[in-house]
Design brief:
This protein has 145 residues and is an alpha+beta fold. It has a single domain, classed as Sufe protein. Chain: A (Alpha-Beta Complex). The chain has four helices and three strands, in the order H-E-E-E-H-H-H. Strands 1-2-3 form a three-stranded antiparallel beta sheet, with helices on one face. Helix 2 packs parallel to helix 4. It comes from Siminovitchia sediminis. This is Fe-S cluster assembly sulfur transfer protein SufU.
Length: 145
Amino acid sequence: MSFNNLDSLYRQVIMDHYKNPRNKGYVEDGSLTVDMNNPTCGDRIHLTMKVEDGKVTDAKFDGEGCSISMASASMMTQAVIGQNTEDALKLSEIFSEMIQGKDIDDDDLDLGDIEALQGVSKFPARIKCATLAWKAMEKGIKEQQ
């Protein structure tokens, strides 16, 4: 697949998550609630997560922001549901490295739709948009530990 076709596919994945967000809403009886915003662009997120026995059993978000911010929140919630908190934090670390343009060893790691955000590394002003939901998830898990 050529670079242009791959780039187009990634844009389509991002727009799909933006227009049809997964896990948008609130976790009833959520054990974690985190509100964060990006004051430079106005993105904001309200993340609720349920963590039981060290495992993320549910995660939902609400908020406002650009397509990258909201698509990233959708992708993040999909990725962490079912993960233990340690693995969710590790995934966040890998995502952060990818979004900063660093090489990641992904031989046995399937990032799924999250890979569509790797091009954000070319736009430093958008990195905070892409990482907002991930930082909220990290904050919530770390505060609970």
